[in-house]
Amino acid sequence: MSGRSGDGEGSAVIVRMWEVRAHPEGFDDLLSWVCEAAVPEFEAHPMHVGTEVFSSTDGRIVMISKWRNTPAALPEPPGHLVARKAHSWDFTPVDR
Q: Which letter does DSSP use for residue 81 in this model?
């Protein structure tokens, strides 16, 4: 068992989890930037499957995006809105 779904190269879905912490006074603007600038920038990418955006009460914004191949890089968020630099991790589905 390979740990990946799909039979051939390029058929495995890659899930990217991206997380950033906003300055308290910049949370709304950072969330708007994610939803109105960052996500639309790669939604038209042919390997992009879909994206969901989540927020927490402690100022974090998480984006979960699914890709048919290597995910596109996200642009850097505006520095004045960010309390902690954005991080991302890639995952593949596990056959179980």
A: G
